[in-house]
Design goal:
single chain; about 230 residues; alpha/beta; three-stranded mixed sheet
């Protein structure tokens, strides 16, 4: 069996060698700092069957998305459809018309994806804090602060201090899946773990959480290519 091609990354934070497969189907091997590089080849060789099965499953669930810039963006979480146009030149690289739900971007192929990600992050900062606040009120919990980031894989987090971090990509998910993520992170304010008691607490506010978790895993593979840096 031919060994798959992969990208190698050395991480000072990693404790163990691991393999991840990105939505773009790029295979990445992460090695802890100081581990011999030859261990990457060895790991890929050992995990070839897993890699093959995972790639097949990803293709079945979500065929590789087009790398062409989008002409529209569906913000499913807030039920908004955005039209995107590309122009040869304009005063600003990106012009957002909220009233018309239109986004105009300078057609420079080297930065289109970056501009789209910046725009998504700005919209997430506009909408997600209020959505989080409403659900927190419903659950009767208080958090300290909320921050919006654009992370590769983590959808959200809750710190011991009660700070909530949310991924801007949540706006691209259906509202019920987005809600599950917010309920999940807010539930950590009461239970800072993933114990049985934690999931029972999540279920109080999101009875279909098991279904939402499955949907979230599948939708993670179907995100448009431009959201990936």
């Amino acid at each position: 069996m031919t060994k798959p091609c992969y990208q190698l990354r050395i991480s000072s934070r990693a404790k163990h060698a691991r393999i991840t497969i990105k939505p773009s189907r790029q295979i990445e091997v992460v090695l802890p700092l100081g581990m011999p590089v030859r261990e990457a080849d060895k790991l890929v060789q050992q995990q070839q069957n897993w890699i093959k099965r995972t790639l097949a499953r990803m293709q079945k669930q979500a065929p590789i998305m087009s790398t062409m810039p989008p002409t529209s963006i569906a913000l499913l979480a807030i039920d908004k459809q955005i039209q995107v146009t590309y122009v040869a030149s304009q005063k600003k690289p990106m012009i957002w018309n909220k009233a018309l739900a239109q986004l105009s971007i300078c057609n420079d192929q080297t930065c289109v994806s970056a501009l789209l990600r910046d725009w998504l992050k700005m919209r997430a900062k506009e909408y997600l804090p209020d959505l989080l606040k409403n659900i927190a009120s419903e659950m009767g919990v208080d958090y300290r602060a909320v921050s919006i980031r654009l992370q590769k894989s983590r959808w959200g987090s809750c710190s011991m201090l009660g700070n909530i971090s949310l991924n801007a990509k949540l706006l691209l998910l259906p509202s019920e899946v987005m809600r599950y993520v917010l309920v999940h992170e807010l539930s950590h304010l009461e239970h800072m773990n993933h114990s049985t008691v934690f999931w029972q607490y999540v279920e109080r506010f999101e009875p279909d959480y098991r279904k939402r978790r499955r949907e979230l895993r599948q939708l993670s593979l179907a995100l448009p290519s431009w959201v990936h840096s």
